[in-house]
Automatic annotation (TrEMBL):
One of its GO terms (biological process) is xylan catabolic process. Keywords: Carbohydrate metabolism, Hydrolase, Polysaccharide degradation, Secreted, Signal, Xylan degradation. The keyword DNA damage does not apply. The keyword Signal applies. Its main location: secreted. GO terms for cellular component: extracellular region. This is Poly(3-hydroxybutyrate) depolymerase. It comes from Nocardia africana. InterPro entries: AB_hydrolase_fold, FaeB/C/D. It is found in: Secreted. One of its GO terms (molecular function) is feruloyl esterase activity. Gene3D superfamilies: alpha/beta hydrolase.
Amino acid sequence: MPLLLAEHGNASNAAEFEQVSGWTPYAAAHHFIVAYPQGNANNLPLDPGNGLVGNDWEFQQGSIDVQFLRSVVADIEANWCVDTARVYSSGWSDGGIMSQRMACDASDVFADVTSWEGGDPTLPNPTLLIPSPGSPCHPARPISVVIAQGQIDPISDPVAGVANVNQWAARDGCPLPPAKSSDTYGTTAAYGPCRNATAVQYRVENGQAHQWPSGATGEDLRDRLWNFMFATTLP
């Protein structure tokens, strides 16, 4: 069966993200395994006065969380019937940044990745629970990526999303300009075909702030992310 790793956001945890994301019933309906890893920051000394309770991820190249997520995949593959050509990552907010870091550092494991309201993994971010100095992204191969943003997200805004997706389009050697389309729930810019038959998409969901969307918009987002991921297998 395909495997999806779903990464939570900052000041959250695996159990909370399972509840809000809707991936568990979606996985049951679409016949894949979903796992919710938890960021390493829970086990590190944090500033007790920062007002944030929960977990976060280490985004830098080769971080302990990169190694942790590799080990999560290996453990699940050792104990469950996993199609190793169909292992995917999808995260929200800081989890979206971590998902992109896995595209940078673990393209030998993940067929492709998606990010909902996550920023550029190469940029410094001193405001995180674990301040990230920024580090490079050099995937071992071209890898397909979706960068999805909320239209009115004040934290990971569409302007930053455009800059981020342009980086991925450049890494994958995508032709310009992208093909643009609109629908009831938002707009899509599709780049491709890129090198090695990869693709990059930039999706903006209408009227969404920094949150995992509920209702029909949430279903639309899950459908779009999963359909994109499932179309790709590990070379």
